[in-house]
């Protein structure tokens, strides 16, 4: 709930015209020659409830308006009193935004039993709903698509698809929250492009992935508040060869579609391929962005992160590429 306060200067000379007083990026108090009202340009599919009070109303907030989806208006008060004097001088209003429930969205693969049981934990559920709303609007660039719009012939075998179970290090039921993309030619000189803008936040060797890099991006709401973060991870690559080629990406800022690697690792089991992973992170969590590299798939990483899904303790989850417009 965000509270806005606005001082209003109403004189006989200006009352006749319409005046917009910016109160936030999305909401305005407007007064015309006879009415003071609130007008907001809402985001699609987001519902808004508005409460208000004027200086003469004391401390009580008005009853909330009915929830309005998207853009709306709400009459606050006549702009003059019974004897024609302008008032009020100050108006306060608060907008309560409710994002669509993620359980009914195309992004529900990020959700977990913890989310579904969170009916009694409304703040957590609201936080995830808000995150899912902004995450779901991110459309990614295909990591194999070159600047000419060409994608080499590739395959994603069933056992390597997102969400498939895959035998990993003796655990036949290990979950594979990623997509494995095999370029049909089998060559290792394969150019990989940033799925989205961001910063190369991870660039390292790891037990499980061998060399990999990750691009991270904050998700920001309409008021400029960071609501979470997403990362894409590009694994089984050869950073030594990339660096020999002059491609030094560690810490670099990249734009969507920028080249980030051009060497798959030749020694990967099953043949050279890109292991492409999408992760979501809660804004509320702190700590190192660490990707797990322990002896088993389910081993916790170092730092506070645990392998798993989105819940208040774990803090991150995995995304299906289809959530971001990618079809593998
Ligand atoms: Zn994989």
Description:
The chain is mainly β. 9% of the residues lie in helices and 33% in strands. It has helices at 12-15, 113-116, 122-135, 239-244; strands at residues 2-7, 19-22, 27-31, 35-40, 47-54, 68-69, 72-78, 90-98, 154-155, 164-165, 175-176, 179-183, 192-193, 198-206, 210-220, 226-237, 253-254, 259-261, 274-282, 316-318. A hairpin with a 4-residue loop joins strand 2 (19-22) and strand 3. The chain is elongated, with a radius of gyration of 25 Å. It starts with a strand and ends in a 10-residue tail after the last strand. Residues 11-23 and 292-311 have low confidence and may be disordered. Residues 160, 176, 178, 180, 275 line the site of zinc ion.
Q: Architecture of the largest domain, according to CATH?
A: Distorted Sandwich
Write down the overall geometry.
Answer: elongated
Structural class: mainly beta
Distance between the amino and carboxyl termini: 40 Å
CATH fourth-tier homologous superfamily of the largest domain: Glucose Permease (Domain IIA)
Helix/strand layout:
Layout: E1 2-7, H1 12-15, E2 19-22, E3 27-31, E4 35-40, E5 47-54, E6 68-69, E7 72-78, E8 90-98, H2 113-116, H3 122-135, E9 154-155, E10 164-165, E11 175-176, E12 179-183, E13 192-193, E14 198-206, E15 210-220, E16 226-237, H4 239-244, E17 253-254, E18 259-261, E19 274-282, E20 316-318
Antiparallel strand pairs: 1-8, 2-3, 3-4, 4-7, 5-6, 5-8, 9-12, 10-11, 12-19, 13-18, 14-15, 14-17, 15-16, 16-19, 19-20
Bound molecules: zinc ion.
Question: Would you kindly provide a brief summary of this structure?
Answer:
The chain has helices at residues 12-15, 113-116, 122-135, 239-244; strands at 2-7, 19-22, 27-31, 35-40, 47-54, 68-69, 72-78, 90-98, 154-155, 164-165, 175-176, 179-183, 192-193, 198-206, 210-220, 226-237, 253-254, 259-261, 274-282, 316-318. By secondary structure, it is mainly beta.
């Amino acid at each position: 709930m965000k509270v806005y306060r606005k001082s209003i200067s109403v004189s006989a000379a200006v009352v006749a015209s319409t005046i917009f007083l910016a109160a936030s990026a999305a909401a305005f108090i407007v007064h015309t020659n006879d009415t003071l009202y609130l007008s907001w340009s809402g985001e699609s599919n987001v519902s808004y409830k508005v409460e208000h009070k004027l200086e003469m109303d004391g401390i009580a907030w008005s009853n909330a308006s009915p929830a309005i989806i998207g853009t709306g208006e709400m009459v606050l008060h006549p702009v003059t009193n019974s004897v024609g004097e302008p008032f009020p001088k100050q108006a306060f209003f608060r907008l309560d935004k409710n994002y669509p429930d993620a359980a009914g969205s195309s992004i529900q693969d990020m959700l977990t039993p913890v989310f579904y049981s969170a009916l009694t934990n409304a703040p957590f559920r609201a936080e995830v709903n808000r995150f899912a709303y902004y995450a779901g609007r991110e459309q990614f660039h295909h990591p194999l698509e070159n600047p000419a719009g060409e994608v080499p012939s590739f395959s994603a075998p069933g056992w390597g698809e997102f969400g498939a179970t895959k035998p990993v290090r003796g655990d036949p039921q290990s979950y594979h929250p990623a997509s494995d993309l095999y370029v049909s030619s089998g060559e290792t000189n394969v150019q990989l492009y940033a799925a989205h803008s961001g910063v190369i936040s991870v660039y390292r060797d790891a037990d499980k992935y061998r060399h990999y890099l990750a691009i991270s991006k904050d998700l920001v709401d309409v008021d400029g508040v960071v609501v979470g973060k997403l990362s894409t991870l590009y694994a089984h690559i050869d950073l030594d060869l990339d660096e020999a080629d002059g491609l030094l990406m560690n810490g670099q800022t990249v734009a969507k579609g920028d080249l980030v690697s051009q060497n798959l690792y030749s020694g990967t089991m099953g043949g050279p391929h890109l292991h492409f992973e999408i992760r979501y992170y809660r804004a509320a969590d702190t700590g190192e962005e660490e990707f797990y590299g322990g002896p088993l798939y389910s081993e916790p990483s170092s730092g506070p992160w645990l392998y798993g899904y989105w819940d208040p303790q774990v803090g991150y989850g995995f995304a299906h590429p289809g959530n971001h417009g990618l079809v593998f």
